[in-house]
Structure formats: structure tokens, C-alpha cells
Amino acid sequence: MTTAESSARAGARGAGPPRVTPATDRLQRLLALVPYVVSRKVVGLADTAAAFGVTERELVDDLNMLWCVEIRSPDPYCPIDLSYEGGEIVVSEAESIDRPLRLGVDEASALLVALRMLAEVSSLEDRSALSRTIAKLEAAAGEAGAVSAQVAVQVDDRGAGSVAAQVRDALERGRRLHLSYYVPGRDEATERDVDPMRLLVVEGRTYLEGWCLRAEAVRLFRLDRVLALAVLDEAASVPAQAQATRTWVSGVGDDVNPCSRTAPCKTFAGAISKTAINGEINCLDSAGYGTITITKSITLRCKGVIGSILAAGTTGIIVNSATARVLIDGLDVMGANTGTTGIRIIAAEKVWIKDVTISQFLNNGINVESTSAHVFVDNSFILNNGQAAGTFGGVNVEGTSNIANIRNTQILFNGTGGTAFAVNANSASAIMSLQTSVLNDSPNAISRVGGAQVVCIGPSNLISGAGSCTSTVPFL
User: Fold this and answer.
1) Which of 161, 278, 288, 342 could form a disulfide with 122 if both were Cys (CB 3.0 to 4.6 A apart)?
2) Is residue 214 located within the same domain as residue 341?
3) How far is 387 from 324, CA to CA, in rounded Å?
């Protein structure tokens, strides 16, 4: 170990007590950290800590854990060599991360049994990703995974599990709930009507967040304290005052909080349910704020700090509301070489993407698949996407009658195959404009299908690669 590294560790130890980080958050960070550094060759300690939303001390702890990440017999050794001398992280001898993971029969069987058991938990809100993972693992394991079918795990769905199922039903149908709820502080059972807002899991416990008509305020109810529950025929009606026009997130926040400036939430997903339509979620500090699905008009804004979304194995931001007007401002959306799509616009009216960096996704950096959406990309960086084989790249506009205006944006190093692109107008009704932007280091700078139009405002763009604009409008 070098003197500089020893000093860095000593300095980190003297920086005060570390934050308590959930194990799942740290595991996701550790899995993404080595590919992140390897893809950049050399990165700064401070920049990497900011990108992952942790302190430098926490990052040093992670690096120390990664110091020996694999032990092989008969001679245990460390196949990954890393150092952070002089404040720069360098990883070498990391060829093992390029090789597919191989599981033994017992490992594959144990993993499949655990995943199937998790899929039976009633409080699990989204099973789609889990179902895909199980299917892929079963296909990869083949006969070796058949052993797991001989093991059956029965999940006890009584108590909080069955209550969660009833709450989820009320949420889906928009119905009011009647609760008999135990209050331990007063050692009494209370009766109250609640308009449900969402289910959330905090530190392993499932809560209902809803508008309590008795308290005339938003309240959290622990499901294991619900004595009885009935779904009423009356429609739920959460009042406007239950949601704030401006909410806040922080790396040291908690999604149980009201998402105020003094009591911020921890994730975008936690804050959006407490933010009114046309409201705004702001970042208080540099941190990772998790992936988010947007179903209403809203602003995500991280200015003056590094607000990041680490989307390893998934999509960073999904916009899915035909009437939504969404502004995404000042974010770093990173796929860590395993994420699928940076920003996916399934349905929207207008989306503004401003001062955003989108990088390291397998498919497209931005994918517009809506109908009659208008997307504006301004002053952003879209780089190193389209890493999977196929027709992928930086910005893809498909669907019906969608328009994308790209200005002051660098779209670099996107795509790996011969059909990969920087930008792609991928339907006959798609319209795209390029102004004062750079398209470079992709097999096809501009790709278009049928009657799609790509209009260059210029000469103001720097374009390198195959393809051309359908027309050029003078730059004024």
C-alpha cells in the first residue's frame, strides 16, 4: 500500500462517524463501481464519490472492501488490482468482470428458490423485473436449475401481507379505506377512514401513506398494526393540500419524511407521491436519488449539486402520461454498463431535458416512443450508450408524430454495431432538429426511416459519421 493511500485512509478515518448505509444500496454501488472506473481508465476520488452520491470516506471504505473481491483455490489471490494514490482511482487486472458469472448447481438452485419466495411476498409492488430475472436464470441454468423445482417455500400471507393486498386493491380502484388501527403510544385501537396514497417499505416494514380524514392530514400507518381493514365503495379523494408544490430530497433524507426542506425525502420515487401536479422536486445535496417513473406534470431539478440516478440493470427515468409536461434539469443519469435505457418517454405532451448527462446504457440514451410528444434536449451530454449489439445509440425517436429538438448538445461514442447511431428518426412521421450540437464517434451520425425528417439548423453543427440531414435551415 502506498503512503498516499495510507494517508487517505487515515484522513477518511478522521472525518467523523460514517453514515449508516442500507446494505442493498451499498451492494448496488459496489457492483457498479469497478465497471464505472474501468470504463473511464482513471477517475478522481472526489468526482466518483459525487457521482455515486456518497462521501469520500464512504468511497474509500468501498474501495478497501473491493481490494480483494474474489478468492480462488488453490492459491487465493486478488484478481482485481486497484489504487487511489493522489486522489485518482485506477483499476487494472480486471479482466474477470468481462467473463460471464458461472453458478454451480447448488448456487443456481438456492438463488431460484429465494427469488420465487420473494415473488410471493404480497407487499412487493413491482414483480415484472423479478419475473424477468427468474425466467432468464431458469433459461441459463437449464437442467442444473431443475433441482430448485423440488423445493417449495410457502409464504405466510396472513397479517400484514393480506392487509397489503387489500390496500393495493384500494389503490388500484381508487377506493377509501376504513381502518381499525392500534396506537402503541396510547395503547388503544382507533377507527378512521383513510384515502390511500401509496405503499412504501422502510427498514423492512411496510407502511400505508394516506390522507387521514380524522386527523385531516397525511399519516403513515404500519401495516402490522392494522387490526382490521375494509375497502369502502366510496371513492378516495386526496385533497390538494396533501401534496406540496415543492419538495426536497437529500442523500441523508428518509422517504418517511414529508419531503420538506428541513425533513427531506431520500429518493425521487419517495418524493413524487408527495409532490403536487406541476410541482417541483429539488436536490439539497450531491447524492444518488434512484430511478423514477413519472406519471404527471412535474419538474426534477438538481442545480449547484450533483444529483445522480444510478440505473444498473434498469431504466433511469420513465415518463408515462399523455398529458404530462416534464422538466428534467441538472441530473446525471448513469447505466453503469448494465442499464437498459437512460430516459424512456412512453407517453407525454412535452419533455424538456436540460443540462443532463446520460451515459453507459445498453440500449438508447433517450428513447421517445410516445404519440404526438414534443421533446427538447438542451445543453446536455449523451455519451457511451448503445452498448448492446443492435440498432441502438444516443437519441431514438419512434412512435407517431413525435418531435425532438436538440440544441447545444454533445452526442458522442454511442453504439457499437454497423447500424448504431448518434440520432435516429425511426418512424415516417418523426421530426428531429439539430442546432449547435456535436455528433461524433458513432457508426451513423444521423439515421432515419422512410419519410422521417431531420432538419439541421446551420451551419452550426459538427457532424461526423454516415447519414445526413434531409434539409438545412440557415442559422440566424
Assistant:
1) 161
2) no
3) 30
> Is 276 a member of any domain?
no
Taken in order 258, 264, 268, 269, the sign of the CA dihedral is negative
Question: Which has the closest alpha carbon to 328: 360, 289, 364, 363?
Answer: 289
Closest CA to 434 of 403, 402, 399: 403
Share of the chain above pLDDT 70, in %: 81
With beta carbons less than 8 A apart as the criterion, state whether 318 and 298 touch: no
Output the domain CATH number for residue 464: 2.160.20.10
Q: In what order do the strands lie in the sheet with 453-458?
A: 244-249, 275-283, 298-301, 325-329, 350-354, 374-378, 403-407, 431-435, 453-458, 471-474
Amino acid code (one letter) for 253 = G
Cell of 355: 443540462
- Please report, for residues 118, 287, 334, 443, the alpha-carbon distance to residue 415 in angstroms, rounded to integers and kept in the order given: 36, 28, 16, 7
Which residue type sits at 416? T
Burial class from Cβ neighbours inside 10 Å (0-12, 13-18, 19+) for residue 305 reads: middle
* Cis? peptide before 258, omega within 30° of 0: no
Query: Are 389 and 295 in the same domain?
Result: yes
Confidence of residue 119 (pLDDT cuts 50, 70, 90): low
For the full predicted model, state whether its pTM sits above 0.70: no
Q: Do 131 and 168 lie in a common domain?
A: no
Q: Which amino acid is at 466?
A: A
The grid coordinates of residue 462 equal: 459538427
Residue 43 lies in a domain: yes
Burial code of 391-408, b = ≥16 C-beta within 10 A, e = fewer?
bbbbbbbbbeebbbbbbe
**Within 14-76, where are the H helices?**
23-40, 45-52, 56-66
20: confidence class by pLDDT, cuts 50, 70, 90: very low
Indicate the SS3 state at residue 197: strand
53: left (phi over 0), alpha (psi -120 to 50) or beta: left
- What the block records as the C-alpha cell of 93 is 487486472
Does residue 420 fall inside a structural domain? yes
pLDDT (tens digit per residue) in 459-476: 899 999 999 999 999 876
Q: Please, are residues 378 and 342 in contact by the beta-carbon 8 Å criterion?
A: no
CATH of the domain at 85: 1.10.10
Range of 113's domain?
A: 105-150
| Cα 290 → chain centroid | 5
Q: How many C-beta neighbours within 10 Å does residue 97 have? A: 16
19 and 56 part of one domain:
yes
Rounded CA separation 211/197 (Å): 7
